[in-house]
Amino acid sequence: MNSDEQYMLRCIELAKNGLGTTAPNPSVGCVIVHNQQIIGEGYTSPYGGNHAEVNAINSVKDKSLLPKSTLYVSLEPCAHFGKTPPCADLVCSTKIKRVVIGCVDSNSKVNGAGIKKLMEGGIDVVIGKLEEECRESNKRFFTFHEKKRPYIILKWAETADGFVDHIRPSNEVPALAITCDSSNVLVHKWRTQEQAIMVGKNTVMLDNPTLTARLYAGTNPVRIIIDSKLEIDTKTSVFSDDASTIIFNTKRSEKNGNTELIRVNNTDNLKEMLTELFNRDIQSVILEGGPKLHNSFYQAGLWDEIRRFVSPTSIHTGVPALNLDIEPIGSSLIGTDELYSYSNR
Q1: pLDDT over 70, % of the chain
Q2: Of 5, 13, 41, 53, which residue is the catalytic one?
Q3: CB-based contacts of 8: which residues, under 8 Å, 6+ apart?
Q4: Is 76 a catalytic residue?
């Protein structure tokens, strides 16, 4: 591995620090190097704040070194005015001699315009260094802009014999506890990394979940519920002040406090609902239940990842989990549970 790749790997590591806070902006990492020494680093601030390049340049103590330095960045610098000025203009103003870019920004507002500005500014630009890895680090952002929908993660836990719960006639029967404490904390960490969490009406009516990240420090995701006939009691926990809530239904559209009702023609039309989320700049959704909803997205091919916990517990009968007909791309042990990962990319 050459030095350019090593510094780009550092950019990718830095970018992870912004995960869950930068959307709808991408999470980017930036490193500035002089004579094989890192003199500045930065990553994207929470949405509305500085981009990675600004934070990296600001971190350099001796600005006189910049014209003799190389700037590494995991994503093409922006070239348009948004919440902040164009990063490409700032980089040009520093007289940095060389810029190494991980991948091109496919957002129509950028898409090569930042690279063009750098080149017109006389900067030696290298494009596509660890491109695949850099795209992976911003998989939510790229899916959003290229597929015009949020990045979709299907997540569930099942017993060793393939059930997600007991058969429960009402919410008076408690849900089956499947995963261990370590897995539960990890799931709440995941919730902080995605913009939204989605469940169906039956999950809310049976479990009364809060759908927050209370076991892990971070931002609560937007709660998305599919409730065609608006049957959910407004006193349930998904209407708490802990997070905003979107209810897809076929009755009406209205907004009341942190709850928004969105009327769609058919709640079985997944693409219609995903388009509504796209129009609201929601880049990623973790879909936690139930099996019917998982199956709908799976069969429609509208998913990007599956994260499937399997516990050592067996219950012999119950509500069956989604039956996958694909092989996992990897697995790991989380406490007493096995976590299997699947990809549709």
Answers
A1: 99
A2: 53
A3: 72, 74, 100, 102, 129, 130, 133, 134
A4: no
